[in-house]
Amino acid sequence: MLVVGILAVPPLLRAIPPRYAARWLPEPLLAIASPQQEVPILPTVALPLDAGSLLGEPTALVAPEVVVVLPTQTAAPAGANSTPEPTAVPPTATPLPEPTATAVPIPASARLEGIQHIFQDWNNCGPATLAMTLSYFDLFVTQSDTAAVMKPNPEDRNVSPAEMAAYVNEQTPYQALSRVNGRLDILKQFVANGIPVIVEIGIDPPGEFRWMGWYGHYLLVVAYDDVNQQFFVYDSWFGTSDVPGQNADREGRNLTYAEVEAYWPQFNRNYIAAFRPEQAELVAQIVGADMDDATMWDHSLAQAQADAAADPENAFFWFNLGTSLNAHDEYERASTAFDQARAIGLPWRMLWYQFGPYEAYYEVGRYDDVILLADVTLKDRPYFEESFYYKGLALAATGQTAAAEDNLEKAASFNPNFDPAVVALAELNRDQ
Length: 432
Prior knowledge:
44% helix; alpha+beta; Cathepsin B, Chain A
């Protein structure tokens, strides 16, 4: 009987919903309860690939015109004795040309005050980080409030930057802007001018959480310090320390400029700025030419080409290249870039957060690849409306109508706010 009981433990533990297991179980039992991942990376493709042709004539890197505005009184200096001086832009893999406009000096350090730190519930870093951000404006909502709109199903593993910006724009009196291909100086300009900004980065959990592997994570930037070359962030998981679940310092957890340069590109350097309506013109000045989508994606493509050329073994750079080529409707070239990223090796959670390979492969008729990647992502974790959606599209394209309808229905029911699935399902039913 004892043997039977021991053998029954793993299945019983795995029957516990992950959000409850994470809250109640100690690490050894949590490791058993978590769905087992057979491989650490997404399915790969065979080399050699002709990916080098994507970099043969890279788009020239042109720095957008820089308009740095004087900081408002909203943000206070992070160090009382710091002397204002021009903000230094850390070097990138390929140095950018000098800005075409003379920058107005901003402080060497600045801080946003009055933000309420919030620890996240299970897989709730997006809703928790957004609730923290809104507290800066004295708008106090809970992560349950934000999650109810952005991820109605608590098992949903991801909230996209676009969904977070939409929440601010549609549910609050404030405004938000989601962009990619950010730079460190843009983050500093936002903070210096009293504008909270969220970044999404990759993390490799430390210590006892290392077994969990690579994750995507949102952070709220609350301060920067040029002297020590670091940002301070409010982290819904780590708190303000380097140990998950602890608040060691209300100043925030420090994240060096070098760490941001290393991990931010794993999400194409995306950021979400939240601001008061009267700050819209200021935000446009800070973002500059990248306020225009086409210009932003041109810059993103140039940066991705430069990054991949400088470090061709970095899978994330090739992934960013694929994402940028998708934005230019160059799906064949995007597919090659995503193939190269997969050949090098992408974390198995990659398609929890970014969905470019689905789009590129679907557009070029590689439906089997779409279905394979969706099946791997959904295995034991049927929590991603985007994966159900693209799998449904691929199945419909191969004539498997019943299976396509089933997957599109799963996408629409899992997240009723996910309009693409609702539209695709209606079109499928109309064509039958």
